[in-house]
Protein: Adenosine 5'-phosphosulfate reductase
Amino acid sequence: MLAKPRPLDPVGGVEASVAAEAAGLDALLGHLKPIEIIERSVRESFRGEVAAVSSFGADSAVLLHMIAKIDRSLPVIFLDTGKHFEETLGYRDALVADFGLTDVRVIKPDEAALERVDPTGRLHETDTDACCNVRKVEPLARGVEPFRAWFTGRKRFQASTRAALPVFEAVGSRIRINPLARWTTSDQADYMRAHALRENPLVAYGYLSIGCFPCTQPVQPGEDARSGRWAGHAKTECGIHLSGLEKSLTDASL
Structure:
């Protein structure tokens, strides 16, 4: 006897639908110029339902400059982990002023969670994954929860783990958009020069990928841009771009 078909899992059905939507958008729009991808996403595909996530790190100016040309009121989410370089916080404020961004949303870790898992503020010394989870992954899940999609500045050249990065990708029931995915270091540098964009001051000291100060160091010659993150550890991503975020986004507490 044939087994009775099970009802479609609502969550699984939504995620499958979003995965198909992301693949369709990648095929339709992924080949366009970054600013065209942003414009089509903001004004058509995700009108009123998209934000940007920015670290205001080494190369954040390019994506934010493009966004400002399309819509200065687009929400920009910044994770204040409590462990940023002072230079990064100053750079954030400078770029906001440069581009006239009007809706920067600063998201912080949950105080009760910090008190529970990192009361001394030194969790990064013993468990970098747990530190990133409480200071980045869970806060970002709260930050993007109101939106159907969000922009990042990730690029394929930044690390081997990003070599196959699509422009549109599904994250649970939402879509992450990487308009600059196909860009090279030359594309990045040319755009910065052409528009006279200011750099994060830490770049001059060899910080080519900038995160929290305890876990970031200058990049050595010949290494990829993210080699200075969690140097000496197998860790290459904080988790906001991995499955941990997907789990947080589907948590019942959101």
User: Anything to note?
Assistant: The domain at 10-249 is CATH 3.40.50.620 (Rossmann fold).
